[in-house]
Amino acid sequence: MKEFRILNIVESSMSVTNQKVAVFELAEVEYHGVELPSGYKPYTFSGE
Fold first, then answer.
1. What are the pLDDT digits (tens) for 4-35?
2. In terms of pTM, does the model score above 0.70?
3. How would you write 1-48 as a 3-class SS string?
4. By the 8 A CB rule, do 32 and 7 touch?
5. For residue 42, what are the CA distances in angstroms to 7, 8, 21, 34?
6. Cα 48 to Cα 27: distance, rounded to the nearest angstrom
7. How far apart are CA 44 and CA 30, in angstroms?
8. Do 29 and 3 touch, CB atoms closer than 8 A?
9. CA 13, 26, 38: angle at the middle one, nearest 5?
10. Could you give the CA distance from residue 43 to residue 39 in angstroms, rounded to a whole number?
11. Above 80 in pLDDT, residue 37?
């Protein structure tokens, strides 16, 4: 299962339906395949 981080949340409204919505900008987390003795798994994610 893929994991994601939230980069940004923006409130917006849809003029056609007059609904307020939240738009989430996500980035996929990429693990390096190494687990530290503390249990931490180093990872990176792109801001694009």
1. 999 999 999 988 898 999 999 999 998 888 88
2. no
3. CCCEEEEEEEEEEECCCCEEEEEEEEEEEEECCCCCCCCCCCEEECCC
4. no
5. 18, 22, 33, 7
6. 7
7. 5
8. yes
9. 140
10. 13
11. yes
Decide if 5 contacts 45 (C-beta within 8 A).
Answer: yes
Residues in a beta bridge with 21: 12
Identify the bridge partners of residue 6 per DSSP, sorted by sequence position.
26
Q: In sequence order, which residues have a C-beta less than 8 Å from that of residue 36 and are 6 or more positions away?
A: 42
pLDDT digits (tens, 9 = 90+) for 38-48: 988 888 887 66
For tokens 């409130």, name the residue: 11
Structure tokens belonging to residue 44: 């990176």
